[in-house]
Amino acid sequence: MLTLENLTLAYPDGESGTLLALDSVDLTVPDGQMVALVGPSGSGKSSLLAVAGALVTPTSGTVTIDDRPVTGASAAERTRIRREDVGLVFQQPHLLPSLTALEQLQLSEALSGTRPRDSRSAAREALAAVGMERAADRRPHQLSGGMRQRVNIARALMGRPAVMLVDEPTAALDQDRSAEVMDLLARLTHERGLATVVVTHDLESVPVADRAVHMRDGRVSEH
């Protein structure tokens, strides 16, 4: 479960002012639930993901994952949280052109110190989970946009996370591929008991989520 309580994130704005990227945000995402986070550009959606994923420390408030505190953790502990507890899926897959789909996932495990034999098995399992097992030996230029995004999602599954944070996964995809990716995220959320937050501008994909949370001016609301 992901819990955000009274989160505030403030940046300096000019000589004397501050900009509130997050303004007293409260949000709870239970295991096995996918939340669609929608709102205009600049509303704070990406800031929320960055704080929830231990990439940015909030000005105040708390983040907990399965009742374990994220805020206040040491730099080393935050690194461990990002590696083991949180799966981050960015808008662009950022795949290395010289590596196969399998090697992309193995590299992420190698950076965390996992043995090559173990990482290969885990990578094949993650690719199978997103329907990409037959494309394990293909490089990015041999994959469609939707397939590259599936590899991106598989990479986020490598640490067997409790929380999945996904930033605009369908921004560069057509309508059919977008629907497939959103359906995949919903299935993985339910099958693996993930607490998933998906930032999206695609209102057609919102019904796939278990609930929708709207964000504006750093605040969240549910309707």
Automatic annotation (TrEMBL):
InterPro entries: AAA+_ATPase, ABC_transporter-like_ATP-bd, ABC_transporter-like_CS, ABC_transpr_LolD-like, MacB-like_ATP-bd, P-loop_NTPase. Keywords: ATP-binding, Nucleotide-binding, Transport. Residues 2-223 form the ABC transporter domain. The keyword Cell membrane does not apply. It holds the Pfam family ABC_tran. Coiled coil: none annotated. CDD domains: ABC_MJ0796_LolCDE_FtsE (cd03255). The keyword ATP-binding applies. GO terms for cellular component: plasma membrane. One of its GO terms (molecular function) is ATP binding. This is Putative ABC transport system ATP-binding protein.
